[in-house]
Amino acid sequence: MVTSMSAVPAGIPFPTFPSISIGPLNLMTFGIFVALGVLAGVYVAARRNERFGIPRGETERVAIILVVIGFIGARLLWVVTHWSQISSPIDIIAVWDGGLQFTGGFITAILVAPLVTRAWPKDRRWELLDGAVLGLAVGQMIGRLGCVAVGEHLGGPTDFFLGWTYTGGEVIEGPLEVGVTYHNASLYEFLWLIPIILVLLYLDRRHVPAGVMAGTFAVMYGTFRFLTDFVRINDRTLFGLTGAQYMTIGLTAFGIGVIWYSLRRHRAEVDSEIDSEDEPDDAPSDAAAIDVESTGDAQD
User: Fold this and answer.
1) Residue 195's CB: how many other CB atoms inside 10 A?
2) Which residues pair with 184 in a beta bridge?
3) 168 dihedral zone (left: phi>0; alpha: psi -120 to 50; beta)
4) Less Cβ around it within 10 Å: N or C end of the chain?
5) Residue 239 CB neighbour total at 10 angstroms
6) Partners of 28 in the beta sheet?
7) Is residue 122 scored above 80 in pLDDT?
């Protein structure tokens, strides 16, 4: 992907650093950022879930299980959609070099979540799902910095002011020309996850019906990710779309369904409460009325 076109210096300069050396230790930055994202996301979800009567330790236990399962799903989907980059069995598990497909991890975790949360109060599961996606968004934002650090999910040269100006260092997708500004889908995702998190926090403070936060995240993430993937030039496509884009179509539809169901359920609960308040407490039941009539007939 070498190009001779001059770069517009308005991009965001960012050197890659796949590893950090601390004395004799050589730490992989991708793994560091993913680990930091997991820790931050679990902390945020656990703190919120305490408001709904779930002990922090229980949330952390379930979160770790879902993270591991989601991690496996994210890696497997990446392998399937990047099979041309797999040259040996070790490449299948070489996550230290980058390569996680978030949509695969999210959908895998969603499918398994009902099993690992079956002991939690049923009437609180939607609130807990809302807390989970808030933590997920925070963790995903931090984890994406790992992709930026290793030079992954890149596009072609651009003059977009939020593009990524390559200033040197090893990259997973290349070769690149120093000083040229490129599209960087990971950097874009890091940036647009910020307003998504702000929207989730706003909905949380407004105490929207349970499930609306989770559905909103699915719709917003699915839409933004679908659009962002068009700048990628190193991913395999089918009919012009990447594997992740097909997954995000399902994710967006899922989010719309969750919002609709959550609002409908909330409306039904409100109507039920109103009907209960309107019914007089001293009104005789049908059985009592029958007894009165029967007594009257006997006296006649």
Assistant:
1) 11
2) 154
3) left
4) C
5) 5
6) 19
7) no
Which alpha helices (DSSP H) does 243-285 contain, by range? 243-278
No. of H helices and E strands in the chain?
9, 8
Which tokens hold the place of 3? 């190009």
- Residue 16 is encoded by which pair of tokens? 């890659």
For residues 211 and 126, is the Cβ–Cβ distance under 8 A?
yes
Return the residue matching tokens 């807390």: 131
How, if at all, do strands 164-165 and 12-13 pair? parallel
AA letter at 126: W
Starting from the edge strand earliest in sequence, which strands make up the sheet with 154-157, in order? Answer: 12-13, 164-165, 181-184, 154-157
- Residue 175: cis peptide before it, omega within 30 degrees of 0: yes
Q: Which of 234, 298, 264 has its CA nearest to residue 82?
A: 234
CB 156 within 8 A of CB 135: no
> Scanning the structure block, which residue is given the tokens 């169901």?
261
Furthest-apart CA atoms within the chain: distance in Å: 108
Here the tokens at position 235 are 């991913």
Rounded to 5°, the CA angle 42-12-192 comes to: 40
Q: How far is CA 277 from CA 222, 249, 274, 281, in A?
A: 41, 43, 5, 9
**What is the pLDDT, as a whole number, of residue 97?**
63
